Amino acid sequence: MRVKTRFVALVSLALTLAVMGGAARAENLMETAESAGKFDIWVSAIEAAGLKERLTEEGPYTVFAPTDEAFSRLPEGSVDALLQPENRTQLVRLVEYHLAKGRFQSGSLEGRVTHIESLQGDEIQIEGRYNELLIDSAEAVETDIESSNGVIHAIDNVILPHW
To answer: How far apart are CA 163 and CA 148, in angstroms?
Structure first.
């Protein structure tokens, strides 16, 4: 009887740890963006640019992700045009301009002007003010959205590289 009780307790513990271990797995940048519910157009742009795999890699990366509302500020038809296969080169440049190698938390950017090289190659200017983070012409509306391979800062405008 004692052996059976210990066996049941051991199996219960193993199942609990397995469930907790699965729940504790942090999402990568792509999964985090997909599950946030405010980056649907951004996720579509990443996929159309063929960069989904990059945001699942080890990293770390910092993503300055325009919200769906940010994309709605662009001229009518521009998002649909960018997502067309014939405009893939421009789309890749645009998406990569919103990505940087390294994990840049808002706290490390506060109180100074910083220039961070984007994956596209141009520098992104970041101005960290008290309770405000400005990224080129955009403002961070939510910062430090953590993922297993980096951090996302949600921004209110689509920032543009030097064409």
So the answer is: 32
- Residue 16 belongs to some domain of the structure: no
Which 3 state secondary structure label does DSSP give 86?
helix
Give dist(CA 105, CA 109) in Å, integer: 7
Please state, in angstroms and as integers, the Cα–Cα distance from residue 6 to each residue in 3, 12, 13, 155, following that order.
5, 10, 10, 53
Tokens of 14: 């193993």
15: confidence class by pLDDT, cuts 50, 70, 90: very low
For residue 10, name the pLDDT band (cuts at 50, 70, 90): very low
Which range of residues forms the domain containing residue 60?
A: 26-155
Output DSSP code: residue 60.
-
In one-letter notation, the amino acid at residue 7 is F
Q: CA 32: distance to chain centroid?
A: 7
Q: What is the pTM of this model?
A: 0.83
Tokens representing residue 99 in the block: 């990505």
For residue 18, tell me if it sits in a domain: no
- For the stretch 97-107, pLDDT in tens is 999 999 999 99
Instruction: Assign 83 to helix, strand or coil.
Output: coil
